[in-house]
Every structure is written in C-alpha cells, then in structure tokens.
Specification:
Helix content: 25-40%
Distance between the termini: 37 Å
Strand content: 25-35%
CATH class of the largest domain: Alpha Beta
CATH superfamily of the largest domain: P-loop containing nucleotide triphosphate hydrolases
Strand order of the largest sheet: 7-8-9-3-10-11
Shape: globular
CATH architecture of the largest domain: 3-Layer(aba) Sandwich
Structural class: alpha/beta
Largest sheet: 6 strands, mixed
Length: about 575
C-alpha cells in the first residue's frame, strides 16, 4: 500500500430515511478522500447532511430508526496491506475499529454520554477496553485526560453524572472519551459548539498537538467558519446532501465560486465593526452602528424603568461525592449577582463554561431555586409569588434552552410542542387560530408546515433548536432568556435567527438576556454585556466599550481567544 493511499476513501455514499410518508434522501451520492495526517473540514447548513455523513463512516446510522445507508465503498486503510471496507464490516471486526482506530466526538454531549454512569466511569471504560489498562491505571489516565481537556475540579467532574455538569463541561468530557484511545482518525462533529472561546482555543490547540504527536487524520465538521479556517487544510461545502464546492481552505474562503459559499461567509458577524443587521438578503447592504446612535440608544434605556431587576442573587448546588464530616458541601454557582434590563434592551452574558451563566438564567424564572436574592419582573416579586400566580406570570418570561433535544418531548410531534403553550395560556380564540399560529412561527424560524408532524429525533440539531425558538416566541413574552440559543446553528441559519430576534424585538419590544460563549454574536446583538467568572460579575458595561477597552485581564483573554476569520 502506497504512502499516498488515503486513510479514508468514501465512494458514492447515500443516506436516507424510510417511513410511512415515503423515502427522504438526506445524503446524495457523496464521494471524498482523506489523506494520512490531513485535516478536512465540512461546512454547510443544518440539515445539509454533515452529521449523517460522519455517522455513516462508523455505521452508526444503523441505529437510527428508518435510516437506510448505501455506498459503493467506505475504505479505511488500517495499516500496510490492510484495507477495510467499513460499509460491509460487521460484528466484532467493526467494533475493533470503532473508538480505537476511528473515534468520533458527537455534536450533542447530552445524548452521547450515558446518564446512568458517572463521567469518570465512562472515560475509564474506554481506557480499559481499548488501552488494556487495569482499574487503577485507568483511573489515573482518566484524571489526566480530564486535565488535558482543560477541566478544573477534576475530582468532582470524575464523580459527577452528566446532568450535574454544564453543557461545556459535558462536551469536554465527550472530547476526552473520544481522544483517550489515541485514534488514527478522529471525526469531530461540532466539537467546540458548547465551549466558551478560551476553552475552545485550548481544545483546538490540543487537537492540533495530538495530530502532530499521533499523526492523526481528522474530519472536522463545524458551522464556525473562523474555527474551520484555523483547523483544516482543505474544506468541503455541503448543501442539501451534496458537496457543492471544495478546495484549499484559504483559497475557497477568499475566492468562493459558489453562491452558497458566499452566503455562508456573509452570515458570520464581523469582528471589526458592529452591524445593525447581517447582510444575508440578496442586494441588501447592512449598516453599522455609529457612536452617536449607540449612545442615544443607551441613554434611552437608562431613562426607562427596568423590566427585569435582579438583586444579589445566589444559587448553590450540592457537591457530588464531597462531604465534610458526613455533611454535604455546596458549590456556589451564582454569587451575589445583580443586574437590570430595560424594556427592549438586550443584555449579553459571557464567561467560561461553568461560570454560572445558565444557572443565572434558570434562577430568574424559577427553574432552579435561589438560595438568596430577589427577582422583579414587570415590578412583581418573582421569587415571592405563590406557584399558581407564577404560572400565570410565566408567559411573560420564556427561555430558549441550550440543549434543544432535551427541551422537546420525544413522543410529541414538534407542531404539538409549539401548540402546547398556546393552549395552556389560552392564546388564540379557536383551535384553528392556534394551529395557524404554529404554522406562522414555523415559517418565521425558516421551517415549512410539513415539519409540524415530525418528531424531534427526525430533525437535525439546528432544526430542533429552531423549534425551541419558535415555541418560546409563540407566547409573545416580555422577557426572552436565550441560553446559547444559536450555538447549535450553522452560520446562515444563525444569521437568520439573529436578524429575526432583532426584528421581533423592534416590533414587540421584548427584552433579552442573551447568554453565549460566542463573543462575535454577543457583540452583534447586545446593547450591554456582563462578564461572569466563578459565579460573580467580573465586568459589565456597553458592549462596544467592553469589547474595545476591557478593564479586566480575564475579559481581554476572552476577546483575544475569539477565532479570527483568517480569510
């Protein structure tokens, strides 16, 4: 076998779904090759077939209901004169390849991790199975890998179940599990989607270092064009199940030949200016905010009575696996946080994974019980209201969760999921009017009415997130808490949703608490920004002021870690 033999050669791969409604093709006869040691990027819209292509390489599509995969060949060069066709491999022979020689980092760590085992147990299982380590050595190696993926308090992480960790912490555990066997080929399906920029930077550096140390090849799937530009030598652009353009990453991003590629590049919020809208509509030139306009807007908000006021909020969680003389110890996730948001204003919240951003958002609407503090919405004491009165008020404050899969009922069609809050809050005079509202909001988030009958498992991660957004906005809230609500979306759909949120904010006047690890997105959509670390507010102020003149070293570190476009 020649040194030039691709480590992976995919020929005419097709994937589709068969149901009582017929056959739906998702991936349409795609072919590509990956050279030894090469890093190949795949970009495209949510639902374009990127993740299905990745899952097919390890035959994981076999476990998807109704999924049908066909290929002339998926040839993996396992060694000198050892060529395996993964499309026809089965049983123990396929299991020997999975995890050990070819590993995958899944897009959604919540579904990739087993909820009934601790994170440490799951990591040690990989080390014992593929590295042949005994229990003691596997534990030591597991702790080492948790450190290598930039987790702190690794004893707690090792003893924790997935639901006890933040989204970013779960993603890093999933990355450690994928890398622990030191595979020859790594399939990275949105590996840094849930990570803040500083941790993302360290993980990307770790992946690059492992590529050099192990001679590892990588198939890197991401909607973040800045990350793709830094991580790969060659890129494939996927649209509607087909590759529409490919080439060296710098050349393709600097001189795209396909209109779809140009649309993707125009959808990314720029880092050098702050735009009023992202220029995704054909022929529309987007304008940037002038200093005078920005100041006038801030002055207007300062003159308003706040819609939301939070005073000295504290949230604590019991520390798993830790006690002091038999008594439980507690981790303070939110520590004396105070904030105000005016009607129509957007406050961005940034900070490392585990800093308390999500706990803050959940505590504001009583999804977790604060230890101390006060929350006032429309002048009413949220924390002091009886449960029945709060249920009535809940319509005014909605949340878009970070994890769209677990925020939707798997047994309920997504149209019913959007209809449910309309029925509960008695919005719409008749059932027909409520159904019309469901179709209206599906269209608003870029999905047609046919999606109403589908179940969450039949949708991509980005499509599920759009359903979550439609469900929250359908009741016309006064306050919208966006917890990483666009992190799972590719850049073109992300741009549509961001523009949509701005348009709806203008027309309805709702306020937003916008939680994100993506500084470019926070800067684009926010009026003010709040930087959190270890549960506390480290710095806050107008978004442009914090972006251009950060006062804290930690804030500067966050900003410097944002992936530059590089093209």
């Amino acid at each position: 076998m020649s040194d030039k033999t691709p480590i992976l050669q995919v020929d005419r791969l097709s994937v589709g779904f068969q149901s009582d409604r017929g056959y739906f093709p998702a991936v349409k006869e795609v072919s590509f090759a990956l050279a030894p040691g090469e890093s190949l990027g795949v970009v495209g819209e949510s639902g374009s077939g990127k993740s299905l292509t990745a899952l097919s390489l390890l035959r994981l599509t076999d476990y998807l209901p109704g999924c049908v995969m066909q290929a002339e060949g998926i040839r993996y060069a396992a060694g000198p004169d050892r060529l395996l066709d993964l499309a026809r491999l089965a049983g123990p022979a396929l299991r020997r390849v999975r995890g050990k020689e070819i590993s995958i980092i899944f897009q959604d760590p919540s579904t990739a991790l087993n909820p009934v085992f601790t994170c440490g147990d799951q990591l040690e299982e990989v080390l014992r199975l593929h590295q042949g380590l005994d229990r003691k050595a596997a534990r030591a190696a597991a702790m080492n890998w948790l450190e290598r993926v930039q987790l702190t308090d690794i004893g707690r992480i090792h003893a924790s179940y997935p639901h006890q960790l933040s989204g970013g912490q779960k993603q890093r555990v999933a990355i450690a599990i994928a890398l622990a066997a030191e595979p020859r080929l790594l399939i990275a399906d949105e590996p840094t989607t849930s990570l803040d920029v500083t941790v993302q930077r360290r993980i990307l550096d770790l992946l690059r270092q492992l590529r050099e140390d192990l001679g590892m090849s990588m198939l890197f799937i991401s909607h973040d064009l800045g990350v793709v530009a830094e991580m790969v030598e060659r890129v494939l652009v996927m649209q509607q199940g087909r590759f529409v353009e490919e080439g060296p990453v710098r050349q393709l991003f600097q001189q795209p030949s396909h209109a779809y590629t140009r649309q993707l590049l125009a959808s990314r919020p720029p880092l050098d200016i702050r735009l009023k809208r992202l220029p995704i509509e054909a022929g529309v030139q987007s304008q940037s905010w002038t200093p005078a306009e920005t100041q006038s807007r801030l002055t207007h908000f300062e003159a308003q009575e706040p819609l939301l006021r939070v005073e000295a909020l504290e949230v604590e969680y019991e520390n798993p696996g830790r006690s002091f003389f038999g008594k439980p110890t507690y981790l303070r996730a939110v520590d004396q946080v105070s904030l105000e948001i005016a009607p129509g204003e957007t406050l961005g919240v940034v900070g490392e994974s585990g800093c308390g951003k999500t706990s803050l958002g959940k505590a504001i609407i009583r999804l977790v019980s604060p230890k101390a503090g006060k929350v006032f919405l429309d002048g009413q004491d949220v924390l002091g209201l009886p449960e029945r009165q709060w249920r009535t008020l809940r319509r005014r404050a909605q949340i878009i969760f970070q994890d769209p899969y677990h925020s939707l009922n798997p047994r309920m069609p997504v149209g019913e999921a959007i209809l449910e809050p309309l029925t509960v809050h008695r919005l719409g005079a008749t059932a027909t009017e409520r159904r019309d509202r469901v179709d209206h909001w599906l269209e608003k988030v870029g999905l047609d009415g046919s999606y109403s009958a589908r179940y969450p498992h039949e949708l991509s991660g980005g499509q599920r997130q759009r359903i979550g957004i439609a469900r929250a906005l359908a009741v016309e809230p006064h306050l919208l808490i966006c917890d990483e609500c666009v992190s799972a979306l590719d850049v073109s759909v992300q741009a549509q949703i961001l523009n949509l949120l701005l348009d709806l904010q203008v027309s309805t006047g709702f306020s937003m608490l916008f939680i994100s690890h993506d500084w470019a997105v926070v800067r684009f959509i926010s009026d003010r920004v709040m930087v959190m670390r270890n549960g506390r507010v480290l710095e806050s102020g107008p978004v442009e002021e914090v972006w251009t003149k950060p006062k804290q070293a930690y804030t500067r570190e966050l900003i410097e870690a944002v992936p530059a476009a590089g093209f």
